[in-house]
Amino acid sequence: MVKQMENANTDKVQLTSELTELRQKVVELQKAANEGPQTAEKLMRSEENHRRLFEQNIDGIVVVVDGRIVRVNQALCDLYGQPAEELAGKSPLEMIHPDHRKNAEQRMKMLLRSESLPASFLYKALRSNGSELWVEVRSRAFTWEGKAAFQSIVRDVTERKQAEDDKHQLELQLRHSQKMEAVGTLAGGVAHDFNNLLQAVQGYAELLIIGKKEDDAELNALQAILRAAQKGSELTQQLLTFSRKVESKKQPVILNHTVNNTKSLLIRTIPKMIEIELDLANNLNTVNADPVQIELSLMNLAVNARDAMPEGGKLIIKTENVFLDANFCRTHLGLRPGDYVLLSVADNGSGIEKEILDHIFEPFFTSKEVGKGTGLGLAMIYGIVQNHQGHITCDSEPGEGTVFKLYLPCTKQKTTAPETKEDEGFLQGGRETILLVDDEESILDLGKQLLVNFGYKVLTAADGESALQQFREGSEQIDLVILDLIMPGMGGRKCLEGLIKKDPNVKVLIASGYTFNGTIKETVEAGAGGFINKPYDLHQMLKEIRGVLDKD
Fold it and tell me: Which one of 156, 171, 190 terminates a domain?
């Protein structure tokens, strides 16, 4: 009986233990059952957050499965200007510009093969309206139900790309400007020395011609030498114009008048098979320009156009008022926003290769055959436009013709009547004493002979220091000083200051082949009586001397 009770108690304990375990399992099951809806709710919330991040992302997102778009967010729709239902099923390559489509296709294949690629790519894309934009694309490949897929984040970087392109363009213009400035400095120095050599040739030829009669056998030879020297002088003037070391005689000008004057010259020089057409704006604004230099530029551009149309064609010269805004000036070095006159010279000739176009304004660069061009014409025009604070461009394609555009800033000044050229007539000399100052011995000898031939007494000095010493020792006897502006040691400007300090009423003529940043004007304003251009022209030289000596 006792044993039976012990067994019953054991069974009761075991049953109680099993019941407790069962209850624990029930609790766990109930707990699990209670947690089931919470887990589902969490999953739903997670899915909602993911969908919200996808839809509200400020960058465009596109999912591509098996080469077709299956999902896009609103930002991508806004970026390309198409609703999601129109984009679905398309190939993403349709959204890329044709120029970049092949490259994009290669990158997509590499991406799906899980090959190593840069983090992002830049593409030119197309909106639904046909406009272009630049996009930066970041992609990640994955597998979707056994199919190759990828997801891309697309960001509009058009403004950034434009800013980078503008910066690159300005850097190119700056390097080109610096190169042209360096070449101009070199060209100006060469032209200055060459001018001194031409001065001797031209001057001695003029001296010999003065003593010859019309029937003299040597007269023709001497005149040929003089013409050659004058031709060389014209080349140096082109070099000096390119390097902006020639003083411009600017005045308020209506360019339509200059164009009409040029056309009357072109009609006599351009072959008749080339049609000249003018398209001149009414009420054209005034520019502050040297009409002679502008006319020279037009003539050179017209000659280039003629050479590009050997079988005939059309030459169009156009003027118009334009306003250049900050965006335009930001990408064109040296320009400031404001009103400009645009002078265009276009032809429908053979056009220019890109390789040549990059060097077209450089001196001595020419695509013409040997003996048919010096390569200075366009370089000279470049210098003229720069000296007018303007800008020149050239657009051309082989077989499509060429157009040059000259932008010249407007001025509020009113136009004035053109100056009439005086008759050179009689060569007048004198008996005054002149001190001739120049560092070139040949120039001193030539100048002395020229002036002595016309009655003047001439003293010479090879530098500024010697000139000052002679003037101090005999200033009462010296009636005029002809002073070279560019000399080693004491330059002409410093020497002028010393002369004026000694005698405030001293009469001085400045002589030079070129100037630096308006030095001639500044020197004349500092106390000089006038300017003689080198190489000396006998008529101009004698006229300027008398003009200063006869001035009260």
Answer: 156
Judge whether 79 and 129 are in contact, CB under 8 Å.
no
Of 390, 419, 409, 431, residue with least CA distance to 338:
409
What does DSSP assign to residue 96?
B
Burial class (CB in 10 A: 0-12, 13-18, 19+), 142: exposed
pTM of the complete model beyond 0.85: no
Q: What is the H or E stretch that residue 116 is in?
A: none
pLDDT, tens digit (0-9, with 9 covering 90-100), for 29-54: 555 555 555 555 555 565 566 666 66
The enclosing domain of 473 has a CATH number of 3.40.50.2300
CATH number of the domain residue 89 falls in:
3.30.450.20
Residues 355 and 280 in one domain: yes
Q: How long is the chain?
A: 552
Specify whether 148 is located in the same domain as 115: yes
The answer to whether residue 287 scores a pLDDT higher than 90 is yes
Q: Which long-range contacts (CB under 8 A, 24 or more apart) does 184-187 make?
A: 184/242, 184/243, 184/244, 184/245, 184/383, 185/243, 187/239, 187/240, 187/242, 187/243, 187/363
Name residue 79's amino acid.
L
Residue 473 structure tokens: 């020792």
Is residue 144 classed exposed, middle or buried when 0-12, 13-18 and 19+ CB atoms within 10 A define those classes? middle
pLDDT band at 256 (very low <50, low <70, confident <90, very high): very high
Rounded Cα–Cα distance for residues 148 and 159 (Å): 33
Greatest mean pLDDT range, 121-135, 204-218, 399-413, 500-514: 399-413
* 365: three-class secondary structure by DSSP: coil
Residue type, 527: G
Consecutive H or E run containing 275: strand 274-279
DSSP 182: H
Q: Are strands 60-65 and 147-156 parallel, antiparallel or unpaired?
A: antiparallel
Dist. CA 389–CA 407, nearest whole Å: 9
Radius of gyration of the chain (CA): 42
Residue 504, SS3?
coil
Whether the Cβ atoms of residue 544 and residue 532 lie closer than 8 Å to each other? yes
Specify whether the CB–CB gap between 95 and 126 falls below 8 A: yes
Strand-pair category, 508-512 with 530-533: parallel
Give the contacts of 170 (CB within 8 A, at least 6 positions apart). Answer: 330, 331, 333
Per the structure, the complete domain to which residue 226 belongs is given by 161-242
Q: How far apart are CA 177 and CA 171, in angstroms?
A: 10
